[in-house]
Design a protein that fits this description.
3 domains, Aconitase, domain 3, Aconitase, domain 4
């Protein structure tokens, strides 16, 4: 916290200023917990009571994992920063009425399956069925087998299978949970009576039958087995029993979503390293990073306690984690640390290297301490496919560290197990984790805690007192926050020398009334992209690379690499964020034919950083577009994945299909989302991306209208203006949601 308040002082002063000058704005100080945890543990009401009226609680948030609260029977989802800002200023959320898919859970899971396995099993099933853009509601006898913490974990992962949200209606399990967390009896009785009166209460046996859904799918919980996901995407599940075979297959396969294409004669290569006075050997599959991270599992005491109990048994058996492995424990809130500590397992996690590093997004967004030079040199020398294992929900290649090529999502106890093993190239059923002091082999089943052990510890340690402690912490704040000085002026006094907070340039050319829609004329293609380009590829995230355009900007202002901080910390500076847009090392631009954060500036023929090319185009007055394939903008909801391209001068994206939230962001910032006709794409139309593109908008633009695109090579083809409703058209005509709101209040 001391580092946080020192390094990010300017940002925190801005937040504190905003809480003073805006009505009804509460700022939760750093070190309290993640937003999603605080939503669950402190802010959630389930049913609101205001002016003698009762109505359901709901949440609109700035992150796709806001959906966690749906596990508590609270309707909520992430719409991104742009739309949320508009909601705060009084505009409603507008959406096309969604289909509601009923997901029936049947039976119960076996005792060796954690809630994370259930999450990943359901994730894979729903992704295969196809629920993108839909609401999912869970029902059936299997729902009662899931605790509230299981439900919130499942709801939290809904962005991974594309649903807008995944909803668990309030039932008796919910009421028992709320009672344990401090809701008074009168409140609970009022809540139950109200929810039953308006038919929002779930019963195991309902005489009136289940609700009518747009579609019903069924999942048998006993069919789910313990698994991990990886090595490059969260949807690629691998049964733990198949892990060794699958990793070997990944080494053999061509480079792609699963493959690394390592020559057969090099798959057994080893590289020796010396670390802290001892000799170690690295090979393909060696674990170099292991993180029990905050966002997915922090709300689930059972899996966190299982990790702690496994650590205790491992230490008691004399097992250790090799010291070169970068281990960390990032709980979602102080409550998690509290129950790990009070249950007596935290010291054992620490002995294995899993020290508490902080509260917030860490390893899975690239916020981690660097690997040792010895490890980095060995990886480079042997061209090794080393591994990271983490209990988060994102594992795209290069996200943890550009030198860690295989990344697996696993439950917290499995993260600890793989760290002890030191490799993912292991069959836990037949190969030991290590040996005890007598030389006896210790297998995973020897130290895996039983469900009864975990539940007993949970019942004894996860108590209402923890929720009470959080409430006290929230209401008291902390000394650093309370003593932090912040401006009192109505308008924020921008510091022109600041590299953290800068007056944004979104409104520089704002007119009081919107003008006519301008055609896109002779636009160059900034990037020619393929399928499944995620917001991680687009948006600035993680650490700032020393060779990047953002690094050059900061260096020119007198900062050293040690002071760069991360893109997340500098999101209040659009100059940094614009330079970090499309700066992902795994961005595959078809112009180059290889992954690199670069593109070609066609008028000069130069290969440049994406920002530098865009800057040249802007100086020349040339508009830009992006060509893409299917599912453009999938992954996390990131408003900078739209703001960044807008500030680079991108006027339109032409893709085969979009992730709904990202498309909303594009419209919200004033970028036209264009779509190829069904069955068509850049390849089928013979587009190279080297031609220029022109498009005119009709005066009466309407949702889904077909427009004519012309190229400098004489090709003419039709595209769809991918607006879903009149509200989106109106926002686009204003140049985006921010302009619309600004004009409304001007």
């Amino acid at each position: 916290q001391e580092v946080e308040f020192g390094r990010n002082r300017e940002r925190l002063q801005f937040f504190k200023w905003s809480s003073r000058v805006f009505k009804n704005v509460a700022v939760i100080p750093p070190g309290t917990g993640m937003a999603h945890q605080v939503n669950l543990e402190y802010l959630s009401r389930v049913v609101f009571e205001e002016d003698d009226l009762l109505f359901p609680d709901s949440v609109v948030g700035t992150d796709s994992h806001i959906t966690m609260v749906n596990g508590l029977g609270i309707l909520g989802w992430g719409v991104g920063g742009i739309e949320t800002e508009a909601v705060m200023l009084g505009l409603p959320v507008s959406l096309t009425l969604p289909e509601v898919v009923g997901c029936e859970l049947i039976g119960s899971s076996n005792p060796f399956v954690t809630s994370i396995d259930v999450v990943l099993g359901i994730t894979k099933h729903l992704r295969q069925v196809g629920v993108a853009g839909k609401f999912v509601e869970f029902f059936g006898s299997g729902v009662s087998q899931l605790s509230i913490v299981d439900r919130t974990t499942i709801a939290n992962m809904c962005p991974e299978y594309g649903a807008v949200l995944s909803f668990f209606p309030v039932d008796n399990v919910t009421l028992r949970h709320l009672e344990h967390t401090g809701f008074d009896k009168a409140k609970l009785e009022s809540m139950e009576t109200y929810l039953k009166a308006v038919k929002l209460f779930r019963h195991d046996q309902d005489s009136s039958g289940e609700p009518a859904y747009s579609q019903v799918i069924r999942i048998h919980l006993n069919s789910i087995v313990a698994s991990v996901s990886g090595p490059k995407r969260p949807q690629d599940r691998v049964a733990v029993t198949d892990m060794k075979r699958d990793f070997q297959a990944c080494l053999n396969e061509k480079v792609g979503f699963k493959g690394f294409q390592i020559a057969a004669e090099k798959q057994k290569d080893n590289v020796s390293i010396r670390y802290e006075g001892s000799e170690y050997t690295l090979s393909h599959g060696s674990v170099v990073m292991a993180a029990v991270t905050s966002c997915t599992n922090n709300c689930n005491p059972s899996v966190m306690l299982a990790a702690g109990l496994l650590a205790k048994k491992a230490v008691d058996a004399g097992l250790q984690v090799k010291p070169y492995i970068r281990t960390s424990l990032s709980p979602g809130s102080g409550m998690v640390t509290h129950y790990l500590s009070s249950s007596g397992v935290l010291p054992y996690l620490s002995k294995l290297g899993f020290e508490v590093v902080g509260y917030g997004c860490s390893t899975c967004v690239g916020n981690t301490a660097p690997l040792s030079e010895a490890v980095l040199s060995a990886v480079k020398q042997g061209d090794l496919v080393t591994c990271g294992v983490l209990s988060g929900n994102k594992n795209f290649e290069g996200r943890l560290c550009d030198c860690v090529r295989a990344n697996y999502l696993a439950s917290p106890p499995l993260v600890v197990a793989y760290a002890i093993a030191g490799t993912v190239n292991i069959d836990f059923q037949t190969e030991p984790l290590g040996t005890d002091a007598t030389g006896k082999s210790i297998y995973l089943q020897d130290i895996w805690p039983t469900r009864e052990e975990v539940q007993q510890t949970e019942e004894e340690r996860v108590t209402p007192s923890m929720f009470k402690a959080l409430k006290e912490k929230m209401e008291m704040g902390n000394k650093r926050w309370n003593s932090l000085e912040a401006p009192d002026s109505v308008l924020f006094p921008w510091d022109l020398k600041s590299t953290y907070i800068r007056c944004p340039s979104f409104f520089d050319k704002l007119t009081k009334e919107p003008g006519a829609l301008q055609p896109i004329e002779n636009a160059h293609v900034l990037l020619f992209l393929g399928d499944a380009v995620t917001t991680d590829h687009i948006s600035p995230a993680g650490s700032i690379a020393r060779s990047s355009a953002a690094a050059k900007y900061l260096t020119n202002r007198g900062l050293t690499p040690r002071e760069f901080n991360s893109y997340g910390a500098r999101r209040g500076n659009d100059a940094v964020m614009t330079r970090g847009t499309f700066a992902n090392i795994k961005l595959f631009n078809k112009f180059l034919g290889k992954p690199a954060p670069k593109t070609i500036h066609f008028p000069s023929g130069q290969t440049l950083d994406v920002f530098e090319a865009a800057e040249l185009y802007q100086k020349e007055g040339v508009p830009l577009i992006i060509l893409a394939g299917k599912k453009y903008g999938s992954g996390n909801s990131r408003d900078w994945a739209a703001k960044g391209p807008y500030l680079l001068g991108v006027k339109a994206v032409l893709a085969e299909s979009y992730e709904k939230i990202h498309k909303d962001h594009l419209i919200g910032i004033g970028i036209a989302p264009l779509q190829f006709l069904p069955g068509e794409n850049a390849d089928s139309l013979g587009l190279t991306g080297r031609e220029t593109y022109s498009l005119a908008f009709p005066e009466e633009l309407s949702p889904g209208v077909t427009l004519t695109m012309k190229t400098s090579t004489g090709k003419v083809f039709s595209v769809i203006a991918s607006f879903d409703n009149d509200v989106e058209v109106a926002l686009y005509k204003h140049g985006g949601l921010l302009n619309f709101v600004a004009r409304k209040f001007s």
